[in-house]
Amino acid sequence: MDLGLKDRVALVTGGGSQTGFGKGIALALAKEGCDIIIIDKDLEGAKKTAAEVEALGRKAVALEADVTKSAQVNGAVKNALERFGRIDILVNDAGAATPPKPFVEKTEAEWEPDININLKGVLICTRAVLPQMLERKSGKIINISSGVGRYGMANSAVYSAAKGGVVAFTRSLAKEVIGSGVYVNSISPGLGDTNFLRTSGILKTAETPPEFLKHVSADIPVGRMTTPQDIGNMVAFLASDVSSDIVGQVFDVDGGKIIAAL
Questions:
Q1: Structural domain span for residue 73
Q2: Is the pTM of this model over 0.90?
Q3: Comparing C-alpha atoms, which of 65, 32, 26 is closest to residue 48?
Q4: pLDDT one-digit tens code per residue, 41-89
């Protein structure tokens, strides 16, 4: 099926990690014909992803910005608009998590990264990109959330709350802009062997990483972890006109993990 994405311009946050969902999203969209803007604190990583996009025959630019800083994001979006003229698709993928810890043991300083990166960053990036979408009466916004934003996770209460906020923001903004030509949806990825997994503290167990990953995979109904390509495929679908009757929804792409959790 031709998704009709050729020559559209997509901005993906958090595409610098070479083992993350963001890179998979950027490449999936590029394969469908999109030009790609990558925003990440890790400029060198973003440049590597941009180079892979260009190798697919599409235009790409890597821009350095911290999604929690409005001035940096606004500057990067201005730069992107000057280069490409418009942003058709926004994918709010940048995310992080502090190591799991009982809520009463976490300090406010430890709350901040969970809230700022996962929720505030989505708000800042959306506010920077949305006005030109509304002006053109066209755009797709896809927020990357998490299943824990709905069913919660012990020892990660603040992270879960932030991701729950992304779900609520997705549905609220979708209601606000419905009829304007701008569509807002969200994806909740399953656990993947990404840089996020390895920096969030989840792998700090008695098991070696391969043993842990094998154990986790066995607990997923389809028997494997979610890949960046899985998420990229879903983003491409939601970014296309094929999904023009879908708005304000949250899609679990997790190998059936949420079914087992409920």
A1: 9-255
A2: yes
A3: 26
A4: 999 999 999 999 999 999 999 999 999 999 999 999 999 999 999 999 9
Q: How many domains does the chain divide into?
A: 1
- Active-site amino acid positions: 159
What is the rounded CA–CA span in Å between residue 30 and residue 15? Answer: 13
Q: Which two tokens stand for residue 56?
A: 């697919």
What pLDDT digit, counting tens, does each position of 172-230 carry? 999 999 999 999 999 999 887 776 665 555 555 545 556 666 666 667 778 888 999 99
Q: Which ranges in 43-141 belong to alpha helices (H)? A: 43-55, 70-84, 108-115, 121-136
Provide the 10 A C-beta neighbour count for residue 209.
12
Has residue 262 been placed in a domain? no
Return left, alpha or beta for 248; rule: phi > 0 is left, psi -120 to 50 is alpha, else beta. left
Q: What is the CATH number of the domain that holds 222?
A: 3.40.50.720
